[in-house]
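Fig. S4 source data, part A: sequence.
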Amino acid sequence: MTDAEHLLVLAESLLQLVELAGGGDGAEEMLRAQGPQARDAVAAALDSAHPDRAGLDELRQLAARALGTRGARARKTRRSSGRSGRRRRR
């Protein structure tokens, strides 16, 4: 299995786990119970190419609340331009 395939399987497994846990408080408790490994697993799943972007966003939010991960190290948006948003001083 390639790394990309592994990430897809991991993401799908986590999304199913969140669904089975009932979302919300149940999912947060489930993530907390997994310990520090959950943080790495969530980060890897969020970096995957899984097509369920809404599910991954829910997972990101749950992990942020449950694990205190500041967005679970997710890259929610990427800048397409080279500008940093800061003004130049002249």
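Fig. S4 source data, part B ends here. Helices lie at 3-20, 24-33, 36-46, 53-67.
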